[in-house]
């Protein structure tokens, strides 16, 4: 299978931990030059230094940016692509806060849309000219299985994820003829700092132990456990590879079979 990404430059957002970090590692293992983006310079510098290098010319770097600051983000990524065009964009950021949709404040929607829909759009607009010039590009958005089945108790997240999925499907149709694919990976419960916070919050509100909460969540998953972030990242890396050239506009759950819809 054609998986080699030598000579390709990947920009991985939300890369300081969790799924984003795992994506950076997988793409580096396939030979890509990887730029990791998040807000903590020290963490990013250490990660860029630690990422695998499979050939002598492979170079990794980092970009300290807040994806919620749309205008600054655009300027920063314009600077990055001017120096080194991006061929692979992994759109990823922290999940919106939990809560019912009936009581959600408008400001919560605006913040979530800024960190997901507008950030993805801004980053895509900045990298698309370079992808078109190369006649090759991959955009992979990390979203959630809530694209297929809204999840109770995370109303703003559900609404935002649906918007991102429709944005991605529309963009996929517009750029397909340029050799650029746009796909979404939908994680289920994945063993990251984010899920640890969710388990701790559920334990506190229910009075159960974290172990019991985690067991109950895992029992709803046919595979019977949370994903390792590397398992999610493997799907992302495949969609970013030359082998996935005829796949665009899809929503790929990586959820151990949890989603009940087709
Ligand atoms: P995480 O919270 O562990 O990591 C999120 C990353 O995004 C971190 O590197 C963080 O620093 C970065 N980030 C957050 N806000 C940012 C900002 N404003 N600017 C720049 N960087 C920012 O999350 P994760 O578990 O790795 O999940 C990644 C995505 O997948 C999230 O959107 C999450 O909601 C979604 N998801 C996760 C799970 C799961 O079980 N872990 C399940 C479904 C969906």
Architecture (CATH level 2) name = 3-Layer(aba) Sandwich
Bound molecules: nicotinamide-adenine-dinucleotide
In helices, the fraction of residues equals 40-55%
End-to-end Cα distance, whole Å, is 27 Å
Report the sheet-strand fraction. 5-15%
Largest sheet data: 7 strands, parallel
CATH class: Alpha Beta
Q: For the record, what is the CATH homologous superfamily label?
A: NAD(P)-binding Rossmann-like Domain
What Rg is obtained from the alpha carbons, in whole angstroms?
18 Å
The CATH topology is what?
Rossmann fold
Family: Belongs to the short-chain dehydrogenases/reductases (SDR) family.
Pfam families: adh_short_C2
Protein name: Short-chain dehydrogenase/reductase
InterPro entries: NAD(P)-bd_dom_sf, SDR, SDR_fam
Descriptive terms for the model:
14% strand; single chain; binds nicotinamide-adenine-dinucleotide; 8 helices; alpha/beta; Short-chain dehydrogenase/reductase; Rossmann fold; SDR; 7-stranded parallel beta sheet; 262 residues
């Amino acid at each position: 299978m054609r998986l080699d990404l030598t000579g390709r430059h990947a920009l991985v957002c939300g890369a300081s931990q969790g799924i984003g970090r795992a994506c950076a590692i997988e793409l580096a293992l396939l030979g890509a030059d990887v730029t990791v983006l998040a807000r903590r310079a020290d963490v990013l510098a250490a990660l860029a230094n630690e990422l695998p290098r499979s050939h002598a010319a492979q170079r990794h770097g980092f970009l300290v940016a807040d994806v919620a600051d749309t205008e600054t983000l655009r300027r920063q990524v314009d600077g990055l692509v001017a120096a080194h065009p991006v061929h692979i964009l992994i759109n990823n950021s922290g999940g919106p806060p939990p809560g019912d949709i009936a009581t959600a404040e408008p400001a919560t929607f605006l913040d979530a849309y800024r960190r997901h829909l507008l950030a993805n759009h801004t980053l895509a607009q900045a990298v698309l000219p370079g992808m078109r010039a190369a006649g090759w590009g991959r955009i992979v958005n990390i979203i959630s299985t809530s694209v297929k089945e809204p999840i109770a108790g995370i109303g703003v997240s559900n609404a935002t994820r649906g918007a991102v999925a429709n944005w991605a499907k529309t963009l996929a149709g517009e750029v397909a003829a340029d050799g650029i694919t746009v796909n979404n990976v939908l994680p289920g419960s994945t063993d990251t700092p984010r899920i640890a916070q969710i388990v701790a919050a559920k334990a506190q509100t229910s009075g159960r132990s974290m172990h019991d909460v985690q067991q109950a969540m895992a029992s709803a998953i046919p595979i019977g456990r949370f994903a390792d972030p590397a398992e999610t990242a493997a799907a992302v890396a495949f969609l970013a590879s030359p082998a996935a050239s005829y796949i665009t506009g899809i929503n790929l759950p990586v959820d151990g079979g949890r989603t009940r819809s087709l």
